[in-house]
Amino acid sequence: MSHSFSEHNGQIQILQVESLLNEYDNKSIMQDVEERISSGWNKFVLDLSSMDFMNSVGLNFLIFMLKKARNSGGRFAVANASEQIVNLLEVTKLKPMFDLETSVDNATKKLGA
Predict the structure, then answer these.
(1) Are 45 and 14 in contact (CB under 8 A)?
(2) Which band of pLDDT confidence, cut at 50, 70 and 90, is reported for residue 101?
(3) pLDDT reported for residue 113
(4) What is the 3-state secondary structure (H, E, C) of the chain?
(5) Beta-carbon contacts of residue 25 (< 8 Å; ≥ 6 apart)
(6) What is the CA radius of gyration of the chain?
(7) Which residues 6+ apart lie within 8 Å of 113 measured at CB?
């Protein structure tokens, strides 16, 4: 399985991914996110603890998540980003757009649950 969802306090969806390097796999994850938004969820934490590396396909996914959460009136945080992923966000000047937290627990607290 390339991804899984869990709930936190009935308010936040925690999305854990194994990889965001493949556009085809990402489309499946995006469809699952859109289904959850249609069901009323609007707060998401993306747990990257299983990933060390990200490319432009992964960056597109992060932007997709941010836009979807904001458009639904919600919020989005990224947890457990590796040093390489943080560096990629810095180099691309995208880091200020994202709420980066060191753990899922910190991210859920930040989103208010």
Answers:
(1) yes
(2) very high
(3) 56
(4) CCEEEEEECCCEEEEEECCCCCHHHHHHHHHHHHHHHHCCCCEEEEECCCCCCCCHHHHHHHHHHHHHHHHCCCEEEEECCCHHHHHHHHHCCCHHHCCEECCHHHHHHHCCC
(5) 2, 19
(6) 13
(7) 8, 9, 11, 12, 43
